[in-house]
Amino acid sequence: MKFPNGFGSITRLSGNRRRPWAIRKTVDGKQRYIAFCVTYEDALAYLADYNKTPQLYSNSLTFADVYRLDMQERRPNIASITAKNYDISFAKCAALYARKLSDITVAELQAVIKRVSDDGIGYATQKRVRQVMHNIYKYAVKYQIIPQTGDISGFVDVDKPQRKYKKQPFITRQINRVKAIADDEQHPLSKWAKCVLMMCYSGPRPSEFINILKSDVKLHSRTYKVRHSKTKAGQNRIVPIAKKMKPYYDWWMQQPGKTLVTDEEGNALTYNRFRRMFNRVMKASHCHHTPHECRHTCATWLDDKGANKLSIKRILGHATTDITDGIYTHKHVTQLKKAIDLL
Fold first, then answer.
1. What is d(CA 267, CA 233) in angstroms, rounded to the nearest whole number?
2. How far, in Å, are 61, 131, 284 from residue 143 at the CA level?
3. Residue 74: which of 125, 135, 117 has the closest Cα?
4. In 3D, which of 4, 3, 5, 23 has the Cα closest to residue 13?
5. Residue 155: is it exposed, middle or buried by C-beta count within 10 angstroms (0-12/13-18/19+)?
6. What is the rounded CA–CA span in Å between residue 47 and residue 283?
7. What is the pLDDT of residue 239?
8. I need a surface site. Which of 27, 41, 42, 245 has the fewest CB within 10 A?
């Protein structure tokens, strides 16, 4: 029997089995077994009930089961990079995968955070791991897998944030040294120095910058679109391209690949690969900055030049309280370009 999409499937397993009828559901894009029954009729009844009220089977749901169920519901509504970060954080919780959610204690959750801390991983990652825990327990309460009082994720503590150093914007002398590398086409780091300047003069987050699509870069109107961002305010925003940076965008547009910035074969870059090239530029130009400090630089420059506060927020993708429809009109884009051309 063919069931509706997403309903699940029933398969008879080979061999002499006591419960040969296997029930499968697609969870997080993969087929997974959720139960085994004696007869086909039992399996069909189980699957029908499961699709209506999965909480009836909460006694057997593990930490990993609830995560997959939560992400199946959550993934279509969040940015791909956010989903990826959730998956990476979930991987830190491997010790809890097979544990029934209702049996897990606060001490076990805290032990996961402690292992992350003992590995030398700081506040930001610990906070993301705890957020995954919050998501799992929130889902479990929502669907009555556990009672509301069973949400123990709020008792989990993380290390206090420790800022290693205060973020500093690039100064003029540093920018000039980076520009000298960018404009020297014979320099092996020329194209990566271009990237540093492009980020300083438009302020995207590093993850946003390496995921810009060539199809979203409009050189004629001097804009590009950021489709995916860590915040809702940053998604699908229009970012202006400064006049002095246009040649650099034009150079990258001539390179192979779908994303604006690629490797030699035209492949999109991971953050780690981009960070390595960024660090090489910093070393060659005698600078000491992180990719995120390019964004800090853009914000500082715009503020120093007296740019409109609302324009600064729109360029950087910060939340505002006076945007009613979230759509950039021609007038809005013109204002953003005027702001960025002050730099």
1. 28
2. 12, 18, 55
3. 135
4. 23
5. exposed
6. 59
7. 94
8. 41
| DSSP output for 27-96 | ETTEEEEEEEESSHHHHHHHHHHHHH-GGGGGGG-BHHHHHHHHHHHHGGGS-HHHHHHHHHHHHTTGGG
Given a cut of 50, the residues of the chain with pLDDT beneath it are: 56, 323-331
- Cα separation, 338 vs 116, whole angstroms: 46
**Joined tokens for residue 309:** 């506060």
Tokens 């994303």 locate to 259
229: phi then psi, degrees, rounded to nearest 5: -145, 160
- Look at residue 325 in the predicted model and tell me its pLDDT: 42
Q: What per-residue confidence (pLDDT) applies to 295?
A: 93
Distance CA 287, CA 298 (A): 17
For residue 119, give Cα distances in angstroms to 34, 90, 125, 129, 153.
34, 16, 11, 14, 21
Q: What are phi and psi for residue 70, nearest 5 degrees?
A: -60, -45
d(CA 120, CA 78): 29
Task: Residue 202: name the closest of 53, 307, 65 by CA.
Answer: 307
Q: What 3-state DSSP class applies to 21?
A: strand
Whole-number pLDDT of residue 2: 62
Bridge partners of 224, per DSSP, are 217, 239
DSSP 259-281: BSSB-TTSPBPPHHHHHHHHHHH
Pairing outcome for strands 30-37 and 217-218 = unpaired
pLDDT of residue 179: 96
Pairing of strands 223-226, 237-240: antiparallel
